[in-house]
Amino acid sequence: xxxxxxxxxxxxxxxxxxxxxxxxxxxxxxxxxxxxxxxxxxxxxxxxxxxxxxxxxxxxxxxxxxxxxxxxxxxxxxxxxxxxxxxxxxxxxxxxxxxxxxxxxxxxxxxxxxxxxxxxxxxxxxxxxxxxxxx
Length: 135
Hints:
mainly alpha, globular, HEPN_dom
């Protein structure tokens, strides 16, 4: 993958992460908490893919993206282990919200997850800005 393309792809994916965070905010205001959980998960998923784009890596499976991000960036200390916990929690909440007809997430819980996803995306963006400036 050409270097310039990797950077542009990474920038597009972090932009998608921000778009999904914005959508989550709108849904939060509307009281659609299960949909907020979905958008928060996809925001951090897009952020992970933004980082991995710089490596020329992608996967059709969510598990592949998550495993590679953990292996290459959390286990190496580039990102904190708290980010791994955020991934785990948002993945479970998203699956429950999407597939469990009786799952209920409270406003308080979804607001906490919103803050955690904001932290995740901002940490990734901070890392990406450094990477972009080194090219």
